[in-house]
Predict the 3D structure of the following.
Amino acid sequence: MTRSSRALVGYWDRQAATYDSRLAAAERRYLADSRRWVCGRARGTTLEIAIGTGANLRYYPDAVDVTGIDWSPAMLRAAHRQATQVHRAVTLHQADASALPFPAATFDTVVSTFSLCCVPDERATLIEALRVLRPGGHLLLADHVAASFWPLRALQHAVDLVSVPLQGEHYTRRPVTTLRRLGVTIEETERLTMGAFERVHARKPR
Ligand SMILES: C[S@@+](CC[C@H](N)C(=O)[O-])C[C@H]1O[C@@H](n2cnc3c(N)ncnc32)[C@H](O)[C@@H]1O
């Protein structure tokens, strides 16, 4: 792991204890509905990359078998506590999303919510997600993305100048564009809130 990645792990470790309480208002207003959208589409063996505090765990259907990874040990401890609270079995691993410790074609579904905005290499993370997905498997994403409303998008570019070096947080990415360039079939997309949030349901080519 590079020095800058180690610094980001430290950053997320320090966020873990207060993350849910700080985001509670945004969670209710903007995030929870996308979590329902994404998790409701998950099927079979499901890998959640960068699971954070486990905020999605309450939304998966009972039949889904969830494995979660995150590179922050403190986030994984929070996800474990959340799993206990919501009575959900989950297997957790510490791992880098751009170098997953699973063989190719392991999972029926891969989920990422609000984490492609902060992984150091979005494209490498998507390629790795597709590698561990079985052919025809579901890739389900939700994130804040570059807005379709240009004044907001201009503001996001300005915020990136500070948030990328300080927190590794990107406001102007658009994973669906990267997926299209990778030749992935997009089944469904929805953009909300001036296009600043986007949900994506993609399938790995057979
Ligand atoms: C903004 S939080 C989102 C957490 C969760 N996905 C959610 O929907 O609430 C971002 C998470 O991504 C994790 N993360 C960032 N880059 C990562 C990487 N390369 N590998 C694994 N986890 C990563 C952080 O540790 C943090 O837990």
Remarks:
- Helices lie at 3-22, 24-40, 73-85, 122-132, 150-167, 175-181.
- The chain is about 40% helix and 25% strand.
